Amino acid sequence: MKAENATPQVILKDVRKSYGQLEVLKGISMSVNRSEIVSIIGPSGSGKSTILRCINALAPVNAGSINVAGIEVNDPKLDERALRRRVGMVFQSYNLFPHRTVLQNIMMAPLQVLKQNRADVEQRARALLAKVRLSEKENAYPGELSGGQQQRVAIARSLCMNPEVMMFDEVTAALDPETVKEVLTTIRDVAAEGMTCILVTHEMRFAREISDTVYFTDQGRIVESNNPKDFFENPQDDRTKAFLDKVL
Amino acid sequence: MKAENATPQVILKDVRKSYGQLEVLKGISMSVNRSEIVSIIGPSGSGKSTILRCINALAPVNAGSINVAGIEVNDPKLDERALRRRVGMVFQSYNLFPHRTVLQNIMMAPLQVLKQNRADVEQRARALLAKVRLSEKENAYPGELSGGQQQRVAIARSLCMNPEVMMFDEVTAALDPETVKEVLTTIRDVAAEGMTCILVTHEMRFAREISDTVYFTDQGRIVESNNPKDFFENPQDDRTKAFLDKVL
Amino acid sequence: GEVLDKIKDRARVTVCTNVNNPPNVFLDSSGTAKGMQVDLMEDMKGQLGKVVGKDLAIELVPTLPANRVEFLDRGKCDMIFTSLTVTPERQKLIQFVEPYYYAAGPGLQTKKGVELKSWDDVRGKPICSNQGSSWNVPLERDYGVTIVAFQTQQEVDQSLRDGRCIALVSDDSYLQARFLTDKDGVWKDFEIQKLPAFSEGPWGLAVKFGDADLQKALSDITTEWHASGKVIDTAKKWGFTPPKFSYDMQDKYKKQ
Amino acid sequence: MELIAQFFEELYHRTGWNFSVLYNAWEAKKYVNGIYIALELALWGLLGAMIIGALCCFLRLVRFAPLRWLVTAYIEFFRNTPGLAQLYFLFFGLGSYFQLSTYGQNGEPPFLSPFKFVVIGLSLQYGAFVAEILRAGIEAVPKTTKEAAEALGYGRWAALYHIVMPLAFRISLPALGNNMAQIVKSTAMAYAIAVPEALYVAHEIWTEHFNVIEMMNVVLLTYLGMMWIFTLIVRLIERWLHVPGMGR
Amino acid sequence: MTTIVSWFDPGSVWAILIPWFPLMLKGFGLNIAISALSMLIGIFAGAVLGALQMSKIKAIGAPARFLTLFLRNSPWLVIVFYVMFLMPFEMRIGSHWISFPDWVKAVVAFSLPVTGYISEIVRGGMRSVPTTQWEAAAALAFGPVRTAFSVILPQAFRQMLPPTMNLYCSVAMATSLANIVGVQEVITVTQTILTTETKPGLILPAYGTTLVLFFLYVFPISLLSRRLEKIWGKGIQR
Ligand SMILES: Nc1ncnc2c1ncn2[C@@H]1O[C@H](COP(=O)(O)OP(=O)(O)OP(=O)(O)O)[C@@H](O)[C@H]1O
Ligand SMILES: Nc1ncnc2c1ncn2[C@@H]1O[C@H](COP(=O)(O)OP(=O)(O)OP(=O)(O)O)[C@@H](O)[C@H]1O
Ligand SMILES: [Mg+2]
Ligand SMILES: [Mg+2]
After folding, report:
1. Is C75 within 8 Å of E89 when comparing Cβ atoms?
2. What is the pTM of this model?
3. For chain B, domain boundaries
4. Carries keyword Cell inner membrane (chain E) (predicted)?
5. What is A8-247's CATH number?
6. Which of E218, E165, E178 has its CA nearest to residue E27?
7. CA distance C33 to C12
8. Which ligand is nearest to the CA of A45?
């Protein structure tokens, strides 16, 4: 699936990020092409979420540069909202808005942020709900859904903004195996349509199956990156080996 | 490891349990021998947690009978605390007491409930902490530990009551793969010492490796039970097949 | 009687009174009570002391309308001695001592230049008053006045100055007294309206029902006050113009 | 009505229990009017407090620091001083200085009646409390929810308006309900500046008739009744705003 | 005192007010004493009532809830009046008359509503501790009393602190109602000043002084409560 010679759409150059004394990212460089699917794996606390949060400017970086589809993210005059229209993000903890129904959750941002036409948005939202196989839940509140269902709504909500890049942060970590399956299927569908995807996951098999490139992070650095086959079958770095060894 | 012809230590007979209108357990029967290790697997919401909660009387049953080491659990005059001294339980969400240090968490119940001698309890607690490889954290507060560490403390806390039966409810569901490994190792150690164990888990490989018997629940019923080899290699029921199929 | 015995036992007489009622009773900044009624109380203390054969101390218990009857009934004080107007309804609840010791009618104070010829002229108009004044309800009910009542005299006065009401109502003799003693000219822009007093209510000492001895002793004391002109003298001392009631009583008891 | 009046008049003559408000038409009218005024004070005070509280809450989020200090000073001052003393300050301080409640030359009604002063006083005092409650509510909205809004491209104020405030308001409802009850009780301070609400009238009546105990009972029932009404209103609002999965 | 007075114009309002300050401070001392004592009593009684409210036994829980509701919703004035009405003023022991000081009655009176409010705060606090903690305690064979005191209440403490401090501030300010039982607290003293002194313009400085007194006393308490809330907030993370 890898599109060789394609234009890079997300470029990180030597990105550093500290929380107070703690240096969390110690020089991260990566480059993701249009329509590429990239997985980031690594132990807990190694900075995976922080990378994603830096990319859509939820967390400011201390040094280095990030460029997303031509937008310089660490430009002081950055229009954050313009950036976030192009970069969708789905969180581990779903973060649906509990006071709105499923359909409203999906339609809110396109209507209120992009000021799009209600009829269009509604049509698109319904189509997305169908895609995540939740059409019959459109009037339910998030509190009435199971975890996997909520996660799928969160994905649909992000997609309804028509982003160019989608980021998924451990979206299956708190789910049971069956539901994990449902969510992964949804992500696979999204990826199959040619959207650029960056995903942080603990599901090694899934990462292997879906990615064009796998990055392994440890203690704020990218230790190794490779195509999935070589990465899993023939890891180079000792830390990667130790990690893959522990993961059942 | 299975002890044939042993005396059953936990016996459930046609247990039924409803929450309001919803019948959650629709006639559960099982029997666990002394020193046997039993795994319960099944889809979310199928009643696995409820079975455990009924066994130690956290949830009252509506019909059927439960007998734990000679104690009739649905006797109206049940001495709940006597029962719970014999049955330990570790929860998915750890549930450590956040206002007490690790060592205090482990020692509280033996001191305050069993009124045991402080020196003895302290010695035992330290030994258990060593066993879960957390000796150096004895004065830390739960908030200062990682999820996996907290879960191991929770196991030590339960063990310090010297229960006859230990129950583990999806103790690894919220952990990252590395930490999962740590916790499963601890459970394996416990089981190896001959304690009766009932565990609910989503880690199929682990269930297969450690159990004497595997139960599969779906919609409040036990659909299938067997020794692990036959269960995983040759499932009989369609629902079991479908489930095992979906689990990555 | 029980109460008199108690007074004797303790060598102390306790009196419920409104301590925020100048110049009848008021406290100075050291907490000492002063005023016309305080002078009368002192005299009463001496006379009661003779009755019980002991030197008595006097203790003032500050009261509010909400608690004075309770305090009397339950023995926190031996009597109520304040500007308590006698009404038939009240007579059912407490024992007034006869003869009553004083009387007052309502007086109106306004800015200079306000012409009020009869009580009908204030119908529907706002008049400032003190909360707990016995004129409030009759004025509202019988004369259609809108009473605007505050907790302290300063507030009443301030409200009149601010024009929150066209007049303030108070005991007529109190108003006269304060104009007579107004050395600083605080009230130079104000005047007392000359209206017929629609009622002059007698003030009575009140005790609990059932102690005839105490009642008798107090009755003797008030009788003596009228006969000797003690009330009239004390009132004059505090700047009051004694009411007609006082002179009538003096005549009545002098003759006996 | 006639019968009730007769009954209580009879009661008075027989037993001395003098519920004069219940048979004396003039007093009954005044007292009912007093209750009406108390309710009206409570309603307007509540409205004012909500408006001021919400306004302060917004102003505190503004980035201009002096404005924030000013609002904080207002809140601290009004929360930490007796409401009665505040009322005197408004009425005899500002009111007297600016001649706000002076009757005109020809008896024109004043600019602000004592009633309006009480409404202003209640609004200012309880507005400070509402501001605090709402702030706590905003802080209680999970950070992850706010981030989700940001990630969807919401600006600061849009997120506040569409997502944070609706949630904060629901979270704050119980505390706001308590506050409302407090306002109802505080309407009684109106008696200090001669607004003839229920307690003021009761005071007038027991001064006249000496029937303090009877009137205290009437006052007690009156307030319990008013509180009951307001509790019902809060319940209604709670039910109306209820969202499945939030709270019970 | 006379030196201070001499700083002011003899005719100024402060020259009139300052001689009253000792009496005002004495009154304010009563406000503080009454509020602190009634708070202390109310906290103990309220903790018990709050725990009873949580009881699963209907015959205990329902009356406790009703009592709490009643105590919270009754006007303080009425409660104070009832205490005055129901408590004797003095008792005869042998030949001696022992009288209860008025402030004792005020303390009793204010501890009643405080009990109601604390009861509700305790209930809310206990409910704020996640069910899983109750279950963990049950699974470790803790009994109800141990569960409450060893596990739940220490965790609920942080939740309960701010409303308790707020309540204390309200009580301190409501103690002015103590004049019903005959306590000459600071607002009563202020009113005495305002009836005794005839010079106009005293209202604002007099009430202003009480306002400042209350603020100086209550504000540090509310600051302290914020500080404690932050400190404990760090200890327990959820
Ligand atoms: N807001 C914050 N303030 C301080 N430290 C933080 C903050 N957010 C994250 N960290 C720290 O930064 C490090 C990296 O965190 P990050 O969430 O990126 O890890 P991760 O790789 O996503 O881990 P996980 O798999 O557990 O989600 C951790 O040590 C974490 O404690
Ligand atoms: N307290 C409760 N009140 C009402 N329904 C409940 C309650 N607890 C559980 N249930 C319902 O009972 C059913 C079984 O729940 P249970 O927790 O036993 O499932 P489980 O097999 O443990 O699922 P999971 O894998 O998600 O933990 C579910 O449908 C659940 O919604
Ligand atoms: Mg992460
Ligand atoms: Mg479960």
Report:
1. yes
2. 0.82
3. 8-247
4. no
5. 3.40.50.300
6. E178
7. 17
8. 1
